[in-house]
Amino acid sequence: MSQGFAISIQVNALRYPTKQAQPVLQDLVMQLPAQQWTCLLGRSGCGKTSILRKLAGLLEDAEWRGDIQADGQGLSGNIAYMAQQDLLLPWLSVLDNVCIAERLQGRSLSQDTRAKALSLLQKVGLREHAERYPHALSGGMRQRVALARTLLQERPIVLMDEPFSALDAVTRHKLQSLSFDLLKGKTVLLVTHDPQEAVRLGHQIYVMEGTPASAHLLPDLHTDPPRQLDERSAELQTYILRRLGGEHG
Ligand SMILES: Nc1ncnc2c1ncn2[C@@H]1O[C@H](COP(=O)(O)OP(=O)(O)OP(=O)(O)O)[C@@H](O)[C@H]1O
User: Fold this and answer.
1) Which of 94, 209, 247, 248 has its CA 20 to 30 A from that of 192?
2) Which of 49, 64, 81 to mutate to test the pocket of ligand 1 (most atoms within 8 A of CB)?
3) Which CATH superfamily is domain 1-78+157-249 in?
């Protein structure tokens, strides 16, 4: 299994051409430790997705000044990216969408990949929907297909943009645990609006603040994830909410 490596991100400035007046991000520094989960929170529109898109090599529409160091390795080909939109292909079945990486390489589906994909679909509760098409699924089901697709890819770096947002509370909890188990050894960057999710899953947590935004690392979290929802976790959530609340004025 490919092990995740550390990434260091420095953004001097990131600006979209339509927002000439001021950058979206400025003087932002983040360290993603190898094989750990980093959670990123921040008000809507502060630039979280832009960071993920930059790491995934998909930020062609913005002006960027900064530096990304990836522990001596290239990022290209090493990243699995679960975007906010599920990006399922409507003409492919659920199973083929999960196996899209192999399909895109022009290979026919191997028995091994098919078996892994079906096992993942079982784990996300969609085994009996494997032959259906995306239009027949609910938003939460589509999100679970996208999650299975991400989990199937053997990439050392995993970027996830609100992967659990469309799920009911019980399913969300279950799939957080599943993802945490299956992504052991990967370097994960998870964008979320949910302080509880960040506290449960993050080895470290960044909160984005300011306009233009920069990122602030929460002080020592003391314990390793996945964390129980105990008194200490509740305090941390309150602290995060207060910091996010400050951003809303
Ligand atoms: N292609 C683009 N062209 C112009 N502006 C853009 C583009 N993409 C994003 N923006 C703007 O840049 C800012 C940051 O967007 P981004 O999607 O990174 O924020 P976000 O923190 O992920 O938001 P959310 O939490 O709502 O998903 C927003 O003001 C957005 O309107």
Assistant:
1) 94
2) 49
3) P-loop containing nucleotide triphosphate hydrolases (3.40.50.300)
